[in-house]
Amino acid sequence: MELQNIQRVYLVGIGGIGMSGLARYFAHLGCVVCGYDKTSTPLTTELQNEGMQIIFDDRPDWLPINFDKPCDSTLVIYTPAIPADSQIIKYFRDRGFELFKRSQVLGLISKGMFTVAVAGTHGKTTTSCMVAHILKASGTDCSAFLGGIAANYQTNVLYGKNDVVVVEADEYDRSFLTLHPNIAIVTSMDADHLDIYGDHSHLQESFRLFAGQIKPGGQLIYHEGLPIGHDGQTYGIDDNAQVEASNVRVENGDFYFDFSNGEVGIKNIRLGMPGIHNVSNATAATQAALLLGVSPEAVKAALGNFAGVKRRFEYIVKNDAHIYIDDYAHHPEELRAAISSVKKLYPGKKLTVIFQPHLFTRTRDFADGFAEVLDMSDELLMLDIYPARELPIEGVSADMVLERMKMLNKRKCGKQEVLDIVRVENPELLLTVGAGDIDQLVQPLKTILGNV
Questions:
Q1: 125 is in an annotated binding site
Q2: Average pLDDT value for residue range 279-296
Q3: I need a surface site. Which of 210, 379, 406, 427 has the fewest CB within 10 A?
């Protein structure tokens, strides 16, 4: 397939954060872009406003007429998040269309470019957004395919005028093995997606394969202590890594740190995005930017005005009466990072956490870990599991986690009940966490807590 010949693109699962980035990319190139997704969201509405035709029923008879037979100018992309029995996917397959995964197309786009790929079971979205922002803000420039909405640009895809591209490398379904980066960052390799990998060792092996695909002369940057099995530069916070953040502190609600890689030192970097875990992410992003020739002064300035990523430690309400932060965390270690950062920033306040588990398999596999981390909160409101692509598993529910928790101030609620409780209890410090549709609560909670 030659990308320069493509005139029409259909995306099955167009509303996903990665898929929507590809949709915007091909629309930017002048292609006719259409797609299907299960539900309408603010993101699909944005895509429609940008001129894309989207349907929300799995009905092949609603497809545009110019997608009736395969040709060299037509590209069909799908995400594994869409069920295999989708009628639209069946329609394309029955007519002989070759279907490409998002990751395959990303591999084709980045093939001839200088690629910075950021992988990890958590931290990859924020780190890739940081790298892209430093390159943009410094004038070095880049294109980027991001797994979240970068607040500085209000989009998940950036267009550059050079051949540098920053991509988020997704380990789900081994997608990142389509990439051959010049610079690779690996932030974490915690057990996850065990429905795909079976066990932690197979996931780790997949990351090692990814690290082995770096182009000759390329660079690997990985978090200290990861069993990556390849030569590279390690990074971390105060842990004897080759690339290190030190003197981490909170001043007036902002995180500051010093950076050193043995050759370059940068003092008193203010990070525009809070969270101790984001200091670690910024350390990796800084090293990648320095390898690309960005000056230390430009790196420091860019991190200071980095506005974060939507749903990554995002302040929704911040006034004298209330602090409300929303985060995408859906793995025990991500929750630990989010909760511990909130408690470090606001040590004297009572923390109320609203959590929505994501996937039956993940809840089953990590029930003990979720319970341990959620016990760090002062009050917990637990929503039911968001199933996403999965069917229910007998005996697996949010109660699995609640029953393992030691904290007494916990309860399972529906979404409306959560809003009612917050309206009555008026919590001073609130954190919503989860990767499902918990984001539907953000605006109502903002309305409740923001009206001071």
A1: yes
A2: 98
A3: 406
Q: What is the DSSP string of 92-121?
A: HHHTTPPEEEHHHHHHHHHTTSEEEEEE-S
Domain layout of the chain by residue ranges: 7-97, 106-304, 314-450
Q: Is 44 annotated as a binding residue?
A: no
Residues 141, 143, 149, CA angle at the centre, nearest 5°? 110
Q: Has 121 been labeled as part of a binding site?
A: yes
User: Encoding tokens for residue 377?
Assistant: 């909160």
pLDDT of residue 196 exceeding 90, the answer is no
Q: Which CATH superfamily hosts domain 106-304?
A: Mur-like, catalytic domain (3.40.1190.10)
User: Whose structure tokens read 């029953």?
Assistant: 403
CATH number assigned to the domain with residue range 314-450, chosen from the 4 options 3.90.190.20, 3.20.20.370, 2.60.40.290, 3.30.70.1230? 3.90.190.20
Q: Which phi and psi (to 5°) does residue 15 adopt? A: -80, -10
What pTM was computed for the model?
A: 0.86
Residue 369, annotated ligand binder? no
> How confident is residue 68, by pLDDT bands cut at 50, 70 and 90?
confident
pLDDT at residue 194 in the model: 64
Integer Rg of the chain from CA: 22
Write out the DSSP string of 384-406: PPB-TTPPP-TT-STHHHHHH--
**Is 115 marked as binding a ligand?**
no
> Residue 355 is encoded by which pair of tokens?
């959590």
Q: How far apart, in whole angstroms, are the C-alpha atoms of residue 27 and residue 29?
A: 5
